[in-house]
Amino acid sequence: MSKLRVRYAPSPTGHLHIGGARTALFDYLLARKEGGEFIIRFEDTDQTRHLESGIGSQLDGLKWLGVDWDESVDIGGPYGPYRQTERLDLYQPFVEQLLREGSAYRCYCTEADLEQERAAQEAAGQMPMYSGRCRHLTAEQIAAFEAEGRKPSIRFRVPADQTISFVDRIREQVEFETNGIGDFIIVRPDGIPTYNFAVILDDHLMKISLVIRGEEHLTNTPRQIMMYEALGLPVPEFAHLALILNQDRKKMSKRDESIIQFIEQYRELGYLPEAVMNFIALLGWSPKGEEEIFTKEELIAQFDLDRVSKSPAVFDMDKLNWMNNQYIKKADTDRITALALPHLQQAGRLPEELTAEQQQWVRSLVGLYQEQLRYAAEIVPLSELFFREDVSYDEEAQTMLGEEHAPVVLRSFLEQVEGAAEFSVDALKGLIKSVQTATGYKGKQLFMTIRVALTGQMHGPDLNMTLFLLGRETVAARLKKLL
Length: 483
Ligand code: GLU
Hints:
single chain, 3 domains, elongated, binds glutamic acid
């Protein structure tokens, strides 16, 4: 059996999108599992601007996720070049073959001609489709068009009355009638091949054995198969991935702000790449058991196209956040601190250059919230109470602080804080214990009162650590102000 070769072939129009990332990830997992090869090439013929940054961003995004590849623009490979604009010469002999054998022909129709034809078909209640009017041009007609200076496009001659069928690895048996497909353009008047044509030649020349791509390309597949057959080339296998829907089960739109769609944004917000990879792997693929948390190695071992669903995957932002939190909880605090710190700095909470003491402090702050953080940037809203002048108390907090025991507990605590020899996490434990002994209040009346007074919140992370990180001065000042 020949070696598995899969490819990801983005048009580098912008940042790496979650849909593209999923295609690339499935390619990668399968290639690594089966000892195959994973190729990345760029379909850059349509795009004139932002090309280089688009290519860079696609590759950087994948690298960040933890995906690597065997051949592409950056590392080369035996079947390059890996961008279409550098492959144009390679397509020429195939164009000539199709023309010579009558499987393609020159079409001199102008935009206006085609528009007229479409309008007439629509008026007659027919599905608009190229009529094939240039199929049988005489040599004289061709010469006349050429004399006018018209530049032809080249169209593929779609055979009539055939059924094109193939077995898709995900969708199983798929069939299309050729009568529903008009002769389509394979080379534009400027000599640039269209997607459908270039893609089959690239896949053939790069020895791709399995094409994994989004379902939006399913209707292109019969066109591609017809061309493989006309050229006498072997047809690769196909696997079309179902759509990814948003939480409302609607087709994801790039403008939808309820979900984060670009890998770059996850990176900026301080998501962990291994969590994002884990999450994306589950967009359409379901593992055998109940477990949902997988390392890259586990994904490679378990991934299988047989368990990729035909029905759309739903992008659940809450699940992603849950999953990322699972990874953050287990991660090293230094790593999370490095991700969180820039956000605190951007918010103006901390200076650009930190003293050793500030470094230690911010590490402890991140440690305090590590259990709770869904992504690193969330440290900013979560830790707000450490950076504001005044604590704000909502109704519930005010009610609690209005109760009889509150001033007694807080006054005693202030005395302890001011009189203490040491203000450390351990010492604070002792100080609060002394408040208990002195006032007789304990449990909620003791701990929650102190927390609410200093933070405005009924609940939160470790109290002693919170107080310690606030620092003695702030604690004393807040207590005084309140009393
Ligand atoms: N450039 C196409 C896309 O980004 C590639 C389709 C294919 O994989 O054949 O959708």
